[in-house]
Design brief:
The protein is an alpha/beta fold. The longest helix is centred in the middle third of the chain and has 23 residues.
Length: about 475
Amino acid sequence: MRTHRVGGIAGLLLSMVLVVAGCASSPEEAAPELEKDGLPDLERWDPGAGATRQLVVVSVSGLSPDRYLDASGGMPVLRKLAANGAAVRRVTSVTPASAYPVHVTLDSGATPRSHGVTGDRRLGPRGVTREHLTRAGEVESTRVWQPVLAAGEGVAAFDWPATQGSKIPLLIPDLVPGLADNPAALLQAGGSASLLEPAARGGVDLVRPSAARDAFLAASACRVLSARRAPRLVLLRLTQTLPALRAQGPRSPAARAAFAKVDAEIEGVLRCLAEVERLAGTTLIVLGDVAWESIHSLVRPNKLLADANLIDVEQGSWRAILRANGGSAFLYANDTEAALEARRRLQSAAERTGAFRVVGAEEMMGLQTDPEAWFGVEAEEGFTLVDSARGAFLQPAPWLGAPGSGAGEDTPGLVAFGRGVRRGLEVAHIRQLDVGPTLARLLGVELPAARGTAFVGMLRIESRVSTPPRIIPIQPGETR
């Protein structure tokens, strides 16, 4: 049994007892010959065509194509996987381009309008709350892990958004403040005791994104993948890049160092698969969620609404309010009069400051976003939007990076490598809507409500489903 690069945490994980529904992975082809570093020579080794035996999906917060396309990106292992697998140069995001709507789109192929996760945090009668949209039961579309479970095969998920309360048998639910610091609540949310107890014994901080938290999650994924009866699908999110992206910006040395540590965790996952001779049958997808941008100014559009008496800051009530999601925000109103007044105020400020633009209802409909919103606003380059109605409307940003709106030049990234993936392929463009159907094609399951289509040009696999992929015309605004 291998020892993953996580110090004392890995030792604790050696005692884990894993009971996983699923099929044992006994490779039909010979395992690749390993080099001294425990990995095969990726330039010479061909994982082969056909259906994947294990699909591992790794989400890396803020991963962009330059991290693996440029030698200076700080991720040499991912760069090597990209050169010998499929590397995407541009990924079109859904709207809003924020973590929870994006991840549910990635695993369902549905738009936020369809799957119902239209923001990271909830909007209540007293304004935008700190509560994340974490409960799996609130998602209104089929997600790729559901038909895998229905087929009697195993699934494991580690900090994957909106998995709380799901039926995933091996689960560390999405780790958000207020839940991650409460072991009992994590268990109540469906967390697996065999996975969570080592964190408690080892004193691992599951609340804040960090290298230690990512190391624990990656080590947990390795233990599951190395088990005698390993799951068919593993979903893993790594977030240690977030503090550096926010504080120093995406082009900073601190961000590069954080991505380098993530690269080492990806290498560790490959090694653990190689050592149990399962790498030959595995497909690995590494993808970004949201593109981060360098910023200089912070905008509080709700301050304008408070000044217009549309938000009562003291009473905590509102007639019209914006809920921000990174580089965009949606306007919600109790009546038409409030919505029109809010739009007039915001349009005037947009023209005066150049800090954002107003996105009309027709464009919002084309983007397939929240049907409850009256209209939206989108930050211009260098600006970011926040929910607070207190403080100055416009001020220098106290940090140097923020998630973009999804409409700029910076985009998330995606690399695919392994079983059933074409080698040496550079893909100009893919939509986040197409990721879920592509995962489903690799797994041989269907996502009947998906708006995207499987990106078959990236694959070397014949579908196990009987129906051909649907061709759905692109709606206005979907290719932004």
